[in-house]
Each structure stands twice: as structure tokens, then as C-alpha cells.
# Entry
Amino acid sequence: MSETILNWGIAACGLISQDFCTALRATKMPNHALKACAARSLERAEKFAQKFEIPSFYGSYDELFADKNVNIVYIGTTNNTHKEVCLKAINAGKHVLCEKPMSLNKQDQEEVFKAAKEKGIFFMEALWTRFFSIVKKFKEQITNGSIGDIRFIISNFMVPIKSVERLNMRELGGGGLLDIGIYPIQMICYLMDHEKPLKISCSGHLMPSGCDESASITLLYKNNRMAVINMSTTCVQNARTSVMGDKGMIEIPDFSWCPVEFIKADRTTHKEPLPGCPPTNFTNSVGLSYEAEACREAISQGWKEHPVVAHDNSRLVNEIILESMKQLGCSF
# Structure
């Protein structure tokens, strides 16, 4: 692989952006450099820059995108601004890694993809789970036939986060499906090789604000196969993924969005510890470094999208989310 160097600009200085920078610094990956950051408050950007030893900081995203020392942008803004910020970065000629969900509707998603294609730049939605080597090995166990043919998948993400303010705010793109439900949805899409389900059925409950609080989604596939996603913002943590075949079962016992172990068909456990890292805001965030390196891999190869999170992959995930939200009565 050529020595492509990614000079990162960080758009927004919130908790997930903090974890992204912490991961890059902790893993000390070569060919990645934090060059600039921006927030809507110059003071906040300055504090962020000082914390992560970033040489340049700005009080607007436009200034960040104009920085010639930056060749790729990590977008960690609130959900409702992703389209706007992505388009500005793309039009400035920057490669983009955008936090999930990349958009709140199909039209915005297509607008971003179209702009990236026309500009000839790399764009990826940050479905970071897929770049954990243990997730690849989990899927390989299934592909290699250890459980026979897949018949049923159950993937959960339940965690008591209903009190988080932004989740209750429709104007910010709130709700559980876009925040945590996207993880089991994308996991099932990944394990099913992005096969489009024949039918999507969803039921659940809404918060007083109209955002989704909980949901259970059933996906029906050809040949009588099924998958079920359970999401809740009020339960104790449960993030298990179980894949049942006609000859056995394999499962990730917890933390399916950032796993460190899975149970094989023979019921032995395969473990892969993560690199050492200072404390982060969210679980196992050091793994964010894996998606950063995936961006470098793609850009060094001249790819405009990464095959592990191809644009069509994001389209399918978004389609399932949007149809589920429509059935719940909380579409944007």
C-alpha cells in the first residue's frame, strides 16, 4: 500500500469526536495526523485543539473546509446537520467520513452520494463495527459453514439512554433507531450479504416528543429465513447477536457494536482484546481507529467508497430504518 497520509480535520468537538481523536492518538497509527478542528464556538474548538494537540482550530466549518492542510474530514455533528456539513466538505474537495446516520431521509442520502461521485472524492458512513477484525472472523465462521445455512438472526441493542436530551429532540434527528438501532440493523445486513428483505415489519413505542423509544423489527427473507432487531432506550444493556443455522448457533454475547469476543458453534469462545487506550466517552471507542485506517486503505487504492461499507450498503440500512420509522409514526 502506498504511503498515503490522511490529514484529518474534525468537524464538531463533541463526545464522539473526542473519542475518535483519542483512538487515533492512542493507537499511534502511522500516516494519520490531526491537523485541524472546528466547532460553532471558537472557544470550544480551541479547548479541543489544546486537548488533542491539534495545530489549527476554527469557529466555523467553512474555515475548516478551506484549510489546505486538511485532506479528509471526520463529521461528528448532530444528525440533523449531516447532509449540510457533508455537502460543504465534499464541495471543498475533502474526503469524508461521516458519523452514522449519514442522513435522515433517502433524498438527502442520494444528494450526498451524488455530490461525492461528481467531485470524485471518497465518502463513507461511519459504520465502524464492520472494521473490527473479530467481526470479520465472526462472519467467516458463518460463511465457512460452521452453523450450516442461516435460518434466523436476533440482534439486540438495549441500553438506558432515554434521558439523553438529544434523543428526545426531533429537531436534532433524535430517537433510538438512528442512535443505537442502526447497529443491529447494519449487523444483520452485513451477515446477510446485504440481501434485501422481502418484508419489513416494525412495532414499538414513542417518547412524548414523538421520537422512537423502543422498536422490534422483523425482516423476512426468501427461503423462509428471518431476522429480528430489538431496540430499547429504557432497558438494562443487552447487545447480543445470535445467528442460528440448521446445524448450529454462533453468537456475540454482548457489545455487538464493538465486540471483543464471540461464542463459536462448538461453544468455545474466541477473544480479541483491543489496543490500550485512555478512558473514552463510549464503550471500546479505540476501535474507531479501525475505520480511520479503512479510509486510508480506500483512498490509497483510489477507491471512492469502501467495499465493506459501500454506498449501496448504506442505502439498504437507511431503507430499513426509514420504513421502520414510518411504521412507528416518527418519520422526519
Residues 311-328 form the longest helix (18 residues).
